[in-house]
Amino acid sequence: MTLNLSExxxxxxxxxxxxxxxxxxxxxxxxTEEEGVLLFEKGELGFLGALAGFIAxxxxxxxxxxxxxxxxxxxxxxxxxxxxxxxxxxxxxxxxGWELSMEQMLDMVRKYDGQPVTEVHIVGGVHPKMNxxxxxxLLSKIRDHRPDLHIKGFTAVELDYMIRKAKLTIPDGMxxxxxxxxxxxxxxGAEIFHPDVRNxxxxxxxxxxxxxxxxxxxxxxxxxxxxxxxxxxxxxxxxRIDHMSRLRQLQDKTGGFNCFIPLKFRNKDNDMSHIxxxxxxxxxxxxxxxxxxxxxxxxxxxxxxxxxxxxxxLTLSFGVNDLDGTIDDTTKIYSMAGAEEQKPSLSTEELCDxxxxxxxxxxxxxxxxxxIKLYSxxxxxx
Length: 382
Hints:
By secondary structure, the protein is an alpha/beta fold.
């Protein structure tokens, strides 16, 4: 029997405005920005979880996705100075930074020869000497070495810098990268779009319009991308909803986003260390509201190395249907910022166990969410 949300909540003393939202969710109607802010202001965890779970169950039943991937981080040297970043080192003072050579990065790819990984994720700092030609050569060599490996790479921040430096238009630069082997983009660098926040935490890098334009260009070229939001620092509820609304509008236009990924602000070793991190309750509320508000994003991802395994499991009851991938200890972005997982690596069996433990069905996917393999408990334990 199908759950009727409005009937369930009619039996409670719930605010009539929240009852109206529950009815909208039941009828698959879009929430307004004002209703989104109301969820943050008035929505209790149980109510939000019920709505988000209802939507996720309708879209995915009990399936939870992951992929087999690894990361290449070419450098943590960067020309930008984002206040929240614990990862990058300024180019002019890079003694403790790293700069991988072309051969070192290709060796990382060769390490996975013969293994069933499906994606390489390339993202790092913005290094002035790692330019468009350098990365086109890297992409081409990875593609030639392993044509079956999906190449997902470069935030809009990296792309904006390298394409401008090459004196190309965004469409021409993106086309050049696509021809070299780039197939999709991650969602990093979005942070918070609203200028009141963006100017305070990352004023010197590409603005919201630039970020959205690069992703729209990628979508027009047939490449999919992800979308993110950095939350839990100085932003207000209306800034979060403004951010999600702008993503929702672009998704209406292009349909090119694979998933939405809320990213928790971590306060270790950065210029915003005085700001306390959000609580687990607030994290779960944020995920649930994301699922409810982002009605044209089929997939909501919780990045388990950032949240930790237990919290990531909890998000599966609050609208999340994707836990990213096996990672294989190849990323330092969040461990350097004090994330829960200091050595982020999980085997396929461990990921399946995490998902099974909360009554969900693990499904291995490729980058574009084509299903590769469904894991029963028996298969995962074999």
